[in-house]
Amino acid sequence: MADFPLPSVDRNDSSDNTYKTMSSLPTSSQISGCKDGSQAELCDVWRDIQGANNWNGLLDPINPILKSEALRYGHFARLCYDAFDGDGYGTCKHSKRELFDKMGVSNTVCIGYQVTKYIYANTDVLRSFFGDKSQDIKGVWLGFVAVSVDTNQLRRLGRRDIVIVWRGNQTTQEWIQDLKDFLVPARLSYKCERTCKDRQPANEGVRIERGFLTCYTSTIHHHEDSVGKFANVSARDLVIAEICRLLKVYENEIDDLSITFTGHSLGAALATLSAYDIKQMLNSKYCSRIPVTVFSFASPRVGNLAFAKQVEQIGVKVLRLVNEADVVPKVPGVLLNENMGFLSKWLNWLPWTYFHVGVELNFSNISPFSIHANNLAYSHKLDVYLNLLEGYNVSQALNSSP
């Protein structure tokens, strides 16, 4: 059970809409330009970009601000691949302080952000997925937590942004067979200091793909710098503790703060799972108004219908970017999934019926960048996704939420 203190932020929030857009902000239909003919800026419309209205009117054609932000978060995920030392001990090549500078990341991607925490996980359960050579019980580097700190960046964003980036894998052949079709109960719980009126009760029907959940919750023997000693912790523990710490640091900015998750492939699945987990925790600890958003690239299915409904109910906003030629978003649940209509809901009790979550942005074959469509490995690469997004303008944006 995760037991980390959150700041006591006693807000009189009578609204059930976590993402309620301020009346002074442009609506989704106005986001591309203001009434006076000038172009809207991110700082004015960031709630819409983060999914306040489920990206209605922003996807077909795609809004340029949304495209820019999705690309930016995609490059955060790209950085994880470049920084990972897979031939050594499964660690990051650089320290938290040096990561952005050493990787030479474009200023438009991470300028003004500071890495505050590295995420390590027990990846034994998905060893062939990651292809990690390290068997170190201290865990494998799986991403990082960062926060916007620069004044100019804060002004551009219109808020303070906490970003959680999960590393995935760019190959498919070795690991896809290890995606077992077994869903297991989530059983994610929190110890709260006090009862909250908007506390979200645990949904016993929520089930998660076993490998994803195990990777997220299995413990490792990790050295914690803040206490100067080793402890048995999970990736989940590390993420929750760091978000709680940052919310304590910025407790006076709760109304102008966002939490954004991103990742590619299994990294996208872990981003979705952890966003669900964190939002449950926030809703139980008086911080329900903090927007929690996922920009996922090539995500496999994560859970069942109850999970998809719960993600929507608690207010997690998920934008799934999908290459039609990529096989990974079609698994697990190749046979039993959300595309079966009423049959899928009737068969939801089976431990291998999966449902995608959130809003889907499907690149299909309309983009001029869509080449090598029959090459499964190529179609799954994050660079291909970023190129497709760069050249994307009009397609079909499908909301696959139940």
TrEMBL record:
Instruction: Give the chief site where it resides.
Output: plastid
Q: Does the keyword Transit peptide apply?
A: yes
Could you cite one Gene Ontology molecular function of this protein? phospholipase activity
Do you know which InterPro entries this protein is assigned to? AB_hydrolase_fold (IPR029058), Fungal_lipase-type (IPR002921)
Which Gene Ontology terms describe the biological processes this protein takes part in? lipid catabolic process
Question: Where is there biased composition of kind Polar residues?
Answer: 15-32
Q: Which GO terms describe its cellular component?
A: chloroplast
Query: Which Pfam families does the protein's record reference?
Result: Lipase_3
The Fungal lipase-type domain covers 163-334
Q: Does the keyword Hydrolase apply?
A: yes
Segments of this protein annotated with the region Disordered: 1-32
User: So which domain of life are we looking at?
Assistant: Eukaryota
Which key words tag this protein in UniProt? Chloroplast, Hydrolase, Lipid degradation, Lipid metabolism, Plastid, Transit peptide
Q: Which Gene3D superfamilies does the UniProt entry name for this protein?
A: alpha/beta hydrolase
Q: Where in the cell is it found?
A: Plastid, Chloroplast
Q: Which family does it belong to?
A: Belongs to the AB hydrolase superfamily. Lipase family.
Name of the protein in its database record: Fungal lipase-type domain-containing protein
**What organism is recorded for this protein?**
Taxus chinensis
